[in-house]
Amino acid sequence: MTDPISPSPASPATADRAPLELPAAFGHAAAPTTPGRLAAPVTALPPEVTARTSALSLLARCDELAAYSTLPNGLIRRVYLTNEHRAVNALAATWMREAGMTTWQDAAGNQCGRLEGAVPGLPALVLGSHLDTVPSAGRYDGILGVLTAIAVVDRIHAAGIPLPFALEVVAFGDEEGTRFGRALLGSRALAGTFDPDWLDLTDENGVTLRDAYTTFGLDPQHLAAAARAPESLVGYLEAHIEQGPYLEEADRPLGIVSTIAGARRFAITVNGHAGHSGTPFDRRKDALAGASEIITMIESTARAAGLIATVGHLEVFPNAVNVIPGRVEFSLDLRAEFDEQRDRVWNDITSAITAICEARGLTFAVRQTHNAPAVACSPRLRGAISAGITATAGDPDPMLLLSRAGHDGMAVADVTDIAMLFIRCRGGVSHHPDEHVEAPDVSAATDAFELAVLSLAAATPLPTAPDSELR
Ligand SMILES: [Zn+2]
C-alpha cells in the first residue's frame, strides 16, 4: 500500500524536535532480529529497559499471565470480573508503572495507564488489547498486544522523547465475551456504547453482570464513567497475533489490518419432545437430530457463500443415553468482510432452519447475542503502522489483511480512529493451547509498533499547552 503519512523530519511541526526525526529516534530495541532493521540507536536506553522490553521478556510475561486461570493442568481460562481478572490487572498495572505510567482501573474494570506528552493533559493515543481469554486458550491472543503496548511506552518514556500527545495503554477486561456471552464489554464501556440492558445478562452459574460488577468492587450504576470523549483521544492502535495463516504463508513477520470483519452471534434453541429411546422413528421429535441437520446446513451454506460460520457451543437436554433429546441449545457465530453479504446469508440460514424444523415436527427460537458491523481501519493510522513495519522489518510494502476475528478496535472505532498491527502466529492457530509466536517476530512487532507511534508523533504538531483537562 501507499504510505500517506511518511514521516518528514523537515516538516515545520517536527523541525525543532530532534528526538522525533526519523530515523534518528528509531531502534531503541535490543539486538537486530530482522533483516533490514535499522542499526544502532541514537538514544541509548538503560539496560533494564532494553531487557524488560525485549521479546524474551514479553514472552516471559505472557507465561506469567497464563498462570492466572480457572482451569487445571496448565489450561487457560480467564474471564471478566473474576479473581483472575483482578490479579492480571494488578500485574499489568505494576508493569505500566514501571514503564513510567500513572495507572487506574476504569469503571468497567479495564486496566489503564497513562504517560503524559510534552505538556500534561493532551489528548491520548491509546495502545491496547485484552487480558481475558476463551476457555482452553492460548497465551498470546490479546495478552501479547497489551505487553507490546506497555513495552513501547516504556521505551519512549526511558528515551525521554516528548510526544505531541499523551500515550495510554488500556488492557481490556472483556473482549472474548466468554463469561456473559456478549463480546467487547470492556471496549464498549470505553466507547460509551455499553447498553444498560446487558447488566441482566447471566453467566453459567446464573450470576448477573450487575452482581458481578458489584462483587468485583465496581458500581454498575457508574459504568458510564468509563466512556471516553472523542476529543480526549488521538486514535487507537492494537498489536495482535494474526489468527490466520496468511503472514506465515507469505513468509512475513508483520502485516496491517485493512478491515475487521463484522460478526453476528446467535443463541439458537431447537425444541422437540423428549421420550424413551425405544420410541419408533416415526413417533419421534428428536431435537438433536434436527440440530445436527441444521448445523451441517449452516456449514454448507456459509461455504457456498464464501464467509465464515461457526457453531462452537452446544447443549443437549436432558442429555441421557436412553432419552431422545427434547431440546438443544447451540451458538452460531457468523462473520464476513461485508455486512450486507453476512446478513443475506443469515436470512438464507433462517429460511433453511424453518424448513428443517417443519419437516421434523420441531420448533425453534433465535436470539441475537452480538452484532458488530465491519470496521475499516483509518488510512492515517494504517500509514503509521506501515511506516513502522517498513523501517524496522525492512518490508517496503507491508501486507494488508482482513481480520476475520473481532477485536476491541471494533468497539473503540465508535469513539476514535483505529488501526491494527498483525503478528505472524504459527499455523494461524489461536484460541487453542497450541497458539505460538516466535521471539524474532515479537521483537519486530515491538520495534514496528514503537516506530508507528513515533511516526504519528512526527506528523502531529507539538502543542504548547492543552486546551483543557481532557482525561
Ligand atoms: Zn484477541
Automatic annotation (TrEMBL):
<dbReference type="Pfam" id="PF07687">
    <property type="entry name" value="M20_dimer"/>
</dbReference>
<keyword id="KW-0378">Hydrolase</keyword>
<comment type="similarity">
    <text>Belongs to the peptidase M20 family.</text>
</comment>
<dbReference type="InterPro" id="IPR002933">
    <property type="entry name" value="Peptidase_M20"/>
</dbReference>
<dbReference type="GO" id="GO:0046872">
    <property type="term" value="F:metal ion binding"/>
</dbReference>
<dbReference type="InterPro" id="IPR011650">
    <property type="entry name" value="Peptidase_M20_dimer"/>
</dbReference>
<feature type="domain" description="Peptidase M20 dimerisation">
    <location>
        <begin position="262"/>
        <end position="356"/>
    </location>
</feature>
<keyword id="KW-0479">Metal-binding</keyword>
<dbReference type="Pfam" id="PF01546">
    <property type="entry name" value="Peptidase_M20"/>
</dbReference>
<protein>
    <submittedName>
        <fullName>Zn-dependent hydrolase</fullName>
    </submittedName>
</protein>
<comment type="subunit">
    <text>Homodimer.</text>
</comment>
<dbReference type="GO" id="GO:0016813">
    <property type="term" value="F:hydrolase activity, acting on carbon-nitrogen (but not peptide) bonds, in linear amidines"/>
</dbReference>
<dbReference type="InterPro" id="IPR036264">
    <property type="entry name" value="Bact_exopeptidase_dim_dom"/>
</dbReference>
<keyword id="KW-0464">Manganese</keyword>
<dbReference type="InterPro" id="IPR010158">
    <property type="entry name" value="Amidase_Cbmase"/>
</dbReference>
